[in-house]
Specification:
Blueprint lengths: L6 E2 H12 L4 H9 L6 H17 L6 E2 L1 H8 L5 H15 L7 E2 H4 L9 H15 L6 E2 L1 H8 L4 H15 L9 H6 L1 H5 L15
Antiparallel strand pairs: 1-2, 3-4
Helix pairs in contact: 3-4, 5-8
Length: 202
């Protein structure tokens, strides 16, 4: 492995085959010399890897820098992915097409009727999370920060949701007994399963 400040395709492929797919050395040699004889599952995994690599490697098709590597490993947090999500959200809520999101726009969903409680939750979310600088509108930068799964508000929302669903005695805490009674809920939580960390609320 070369220490050149970037990850080359061959280096990443080796890591992927050994560490992520857990292939034996014999199968790895098969990948290199006789790819046509591989199983369908491995072929599909390699095809997905090559597609993800092509998406991430913007500057050099044979290597990725640190930012591109992060996008490869965590595409849900990549700038390009978040920008697309931001454009989707703006297309849905930005009624006057001014490139910003007002509180009034955020409180109206064009595809569904919101309950009074949902409107209140969105109003609070807009004021406390989306509109970071408190100027009454959310610009594109604020929306990208809001959508980023690394943003602390997602973990807070998930924790509140778990307590609300599992807290049977309504003491605003979750005991071990209550957690075990809803084990499936906690095992599928975004706080436990990293691959579920990106939210698709919009």
């Amino acid at each position: 492995m070369t220490k050149n400040g970037q990850v080359d395709w061959e280096e990443y492929l080796s890591h992927y085959l050994r560490d992520l797919l857990g292939l034996e050395e014999e199968t790895i040699k098969q990948v290199e010399k006789k790819p046509d004889t591989l199983s369908r599952d491995i072929k599909e995994s390699l095809a997905r890897l090559k597609a993800a690599w092509s998406e991430a490697a913007h500057n050099n098709p044979d290597a990725v820098n640190i930012d591109e590597f992060l996008g490869l490993e965590h595409p849900e947090s990549s700038h390009s992915f978040l920008t697309r999500r931001m454009e989707e959200l703006m297309g849905k809520f930005d009624a006057d097409d001014d490139g910003k999101l007002s509180k009034a726009e955020y409180l109206v969903d064009p595809f569904m009727d919101l309950s009074t409680e949902e409107v209140q939750d969105r109003r609070k979310e807009f004021m406390e999370v989306l509109d970071k600088n408190g100027d009454g509108v959310a610009d594109k930068k604020e929306i990208v920060q809001f959508l980023d799964p690394k943003s602390p508000h997602w973990a807070k929302d998930e924790a509140i949701s778990l307590i609300r669903q599992a807290d049977r005695d309504k003491d605003k805490m979750v005991s071990l007994e209550e957690m075990m009674a809803r084990a499936d809920l906690f095992l599928m939580s975004k706080l436990v399963s990293a691959d579920l960390s990106f939210h698709g609320e919009f």
